[in-house]
Design brief:
By secondary structure, the chain is α+β, with helices and mostly antiparallel strands. Helix content is about 30%, strand content about 25%. It has a five-stranded antiparallel sheet with strand order 2-1-3-4-5. A hairpin with a 5-residue loop joins strand 3 (about 80-90) and strand 4. The radius of gyration is 17 Å and the shape is elongated.
Length: about 170
Amino acid sequence: MEMLGLRFETAVSEADEHYAGTPAETVAVLSRRKAEAVAPAHPGAIVLAADTLVFADDLRLGKPADAADARRMLKLLSGRWHSVLTGVTVISTVTGRSETAVEETKVHFLDIPEDELEAYLATDEPYDKAGGYAIQGRAGAYIDRIEGSWSNVVGLPMHVAKRMIGQMLGA
């Protein structure tokens, strides 16, 4: 939001993050739930919420539960393409209007050598990230190609957020 020159505050949503639909449906529903959960506490504001998930062969890869789960995810991603989808929901608490969009980016990982995977798992990076990696972090060294938005893989497709906020503001 700073990149867009907007004043903002961060609010954590306690919305239910369980949903079993297609990848696009899942991120759309989860972002909408988050925005709807936070909006009542922010009258007069525009609320933006996002939910990013990694999918490999339609298998949902959320945040790893532990090192074994992160290892499983990264081995699944190693040497192949996967999709990162982000649902973005914007709600105007003034008008009640809302919009949800989904952005998809294809990401290709190089093969991750076993010793380097173990060194990566020893860092804090994999454990609070969908799919067990951050493109803007150490794992970025294993990503050789993307098709789509880099900021989407980080967790918020900035061009989508800018367009949606602009529409809510009437710009």
